[in-house]
Amino acid sequence: MRGLAQRLEHLGTETAFAVSKAAADWAAAGNEVYSFHLGDINLPTPSNIVDAMRAAIAAGHTGYCPGAGITPLREALARDIGDARGLSLGADNIAVQPGGKPVITKFIQSLMNKGDGVLYPSPGYPIYESQVEYFGGTPLPYGYRMTADGFEIDMEGLRAMAPKASLLVYNNLQNPLGSESSDDEMHEIAAIAREHDLWVLSDEAYFDMRYSGESTSIASLPGMVERTIILYTFSKRFAMTGWRLGCAAGPEAVIAAFARLNTNDESCTTHFIQHAGIAALEDPSGSAPMLDELRRRRDATAAGLAQVPGIEFAVPEATFYLFPRVAGAMERTGCETVGEFATAALKETGVSFCTRHHFGRPLDGEDDRFIRLAYSGIDADRISIGMERLAEWVDRGSA
Questions:
Q1: Which of 3.40.640.10, 3.40.50.720, 3.40.50.10700, 2.40.33.20 is the CATH number of 63-284?
Q2: What angle, 0 to 180 degrees and rounded to 10, lies between the N-to-C axes of helices 101-111 and 252-265?
Q3: Which residue spans of the chain are classified as CATH 3.90.1150.10?
Q4: Helix (H, G, I), strand (E, B) or coil at 293
Q5: Is the Cα dihedral 375, 131, 124, 175 positive or negative?
Q6: Second CATH level (architecture) for the domain 6-44+287-396
Q7: pLDDT at position 15 over 70
Q8: Distance CA 232, CA 246 (A)
Q9: How many CB atoms lie within 10 A of CB 58?
Q10: Which of 38, 202, 283, 347 has its CB surrounded by the most CB atoms within 10 Å?
Q11: pLDDT at position 328, please?
Q12: pLDDT bucket at 11, cuts 50 / 70 / 90
């Protein structure tokens, strides 16, 4: 019997789900687990969205619909995305997707030829790297430097690779770092994209997930809207991770290609869920209390983490992640690798988290002694207990 297609050897995955299995196995054995590993949200989807979904099913919106999405949702998305970013968008600039992740795949499929270089962040969402390699592109990962305020892009490294690239993936309000570009950094990235005529995927999954200040899209900078595809998702803003609803926003010709891929891949995004999306955009007030709760969780995580010896971190103003450097804590607990530290932490404290290695292959010479704490799926009181247990364990390691 013939084997699987060889190209599957180049297809990665979200290895964070392997951490979920280890945590579930540990809990099944009767142990307490404090889950910081998955960026899911354990808060309910706002009731107006749920009610709209039920009404859409009752109204019979359970069949096929246009591959690009129903017109009322595309129009609502064009207004919402455009108004928040200072862009003039219409329905023809929008292709509805079953979540945000398909936008990554279709960006690669639509705009990358085999062998083309693709710049993408590392650490970064692992699907960038996976899709570039699966479709035969040349991976060009760019890195970050830790600063007192968080992280900044290694612009020297990015600039050096730009002549080899055709595409650039840019994730401001970044997963897993929680970092945000300064105005200067964003303008410099835009200048590089214009200079080298790069298509840009602006992953804006966390555009609305912030606790202070305002988000800026690179698409709003001069000369960028015509070369940028925005990834938008309902998953984070409206606690709709399992609903699978998002869109690509960009130039009409590229969006038309996305719609053709939609027809080939999934026919259409679930019809009645698109009606729920309209309700979410028409009344987004349910997202405000969620942000308030996530802020409480961020503050609880930061307060607890500050008591853990040997850890350095900054507190981001967006996303729901902290990405601390744990070199000192590793030394205190006798762990030689960050993976060993994560395994020991689970068994000694019940605290479960991802490491830098779950977010793309580390770059040559990179300090990989970082972990990611996602506080979106764990209540504030359990955050405090988990951080206290982590602190006690690391402190004992010095004895």
A1: 3.40.640.10
A2: 110
A3: 6-44+287-396
A4: helix
A5: negative
A6: Alpha-Beta Complex (3.90)
A7: no
A8: 5
A9: 10
A10: 202
A11: 97
A12: confident
